[in-house]
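pasting input
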Amino acid sequence: MTLKEFWHRLGSPRWFYQISGPFGWVFGSLAMALLVIGTYWGLAVAPPDYQQGNSFRIIYVHVPSAILAQSAYMLMGAAGLVLLVWRMKLADMVLAATVPFGMSMTALALFTGAVWGKPTWGAWWVWDARTTSMLVLLFLYIGLYALRQAVPRQEAAGRACAVLAVVGVVNIPIIKYSVDWWLTLHQGATFKLTESPSMPPEMWLPLLVNVLGFYCFFGANLVGRLRLEILRREHGTAWVQELMAGGRT
Amino acid sequence: MNGGLATAKPGTLFIAQLRRELTSTLRSLAEALNPLVFLFLAITLFALGAGGDPETLGAYAPAIIWVLVLLANQLSLEAMFRRDFEDGTLEQLLLLARPLFIPILAKVCAQWCVTGLAMTLLSPIAAMMLYLPLDALGVTMLTLLTGSPAITLIGAVGAALTVGLRRGGVLLALLVLPLFVPTLIFGAGAIMQAVAGMGTSAQIYWLMAISMLSLTIGPFAVQAALRISLEQ
């Protein structure tokens, strides 16, 4: 199958439903394995930080969730563009399915950041550049979620969210840059992250494993949500009726 | 719409649309002035809340001015497409057999005249009410002049997305306020730099760049959003 053919086939939710079953399993089991290994490695095996002691270990959750929060938004921007240009149904479903995941990842990143900040910086909340752009990202996610809830017709809701997601993706780099700029204006040398910029491999390898694990988890979550969404939206069609009646396709 | 508009030159179309918008604004002037009244009312509330202390107010003046300008703009955005949506004008506009870049630009321009431009012209009064050092007055006006087009353009996208919704007001705020963050940072930042006696050209250039970017992308996003809103 050529790439072009694949692209055309993606236009059919039914086709996607039929081929995506195994992906869910593969991503799911990979995620499980990677997360168990990475988390155990990070929490139990990796050496403590020479400055922060054991509190640094929260990065094994914090960093992956922050990365995923941003990746999910980028994915939504891409899906939004696809939806606006090609009106692909699946793109709308990707948009709808990613919002809750990205929102919870952003919230998790902010929460773990706060938990880490208390012993390290001495405060739950600090207007640090990255924290602030994460908070703005959370608001962007909430906006998308609220917009979808507010627009009564499903198709219109999807395309409205697509416009907002695309505008958001264009804005995110500007927001990020401006917040970095703002930090350099406001903040002297009050806080410093760990001075050592490069971690030893025994510390960053588990992090890498966990990041990959989070990505696989995202994949499994997305496929699962997409499959449910396809069934929900296509429930009136013959093939879903048939599927529900008994036979597996 | 007659055939004239579909084939008119861009300039003619822009001027015709702008004149229409400004006329209709003038005919309901009280409504157009409400955001400006809100701006000064909120400044008064800030002064009252801070006990009228010149030092406190002066220190926070850049932030207060910019945040209130954003909020006043946001309040006025809800009405931007509302009336045209309700009486069907918007639908007629979308039926034009040509891209809507020019008419939308004219609409945004008219909106900007009664919000961004008006607030820029009135900002010296706001600055004095908040004891902002007089040296920073020019920079304050310049930041508002260069930053407010971006606010109106970004806000117009949000307004277009929410125009068909029953309770769009709070949702509109939720959608557009996060997108105003860069404008706020550079705008208020430049005034603070000016108060401290430092150079502000970098921030001004950034504000201009953001406005230019919004100008190139914004009208297309507004057009897409309006089509979606009118399909419902």
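fyi Chain B has a mean pLDDT of 90.
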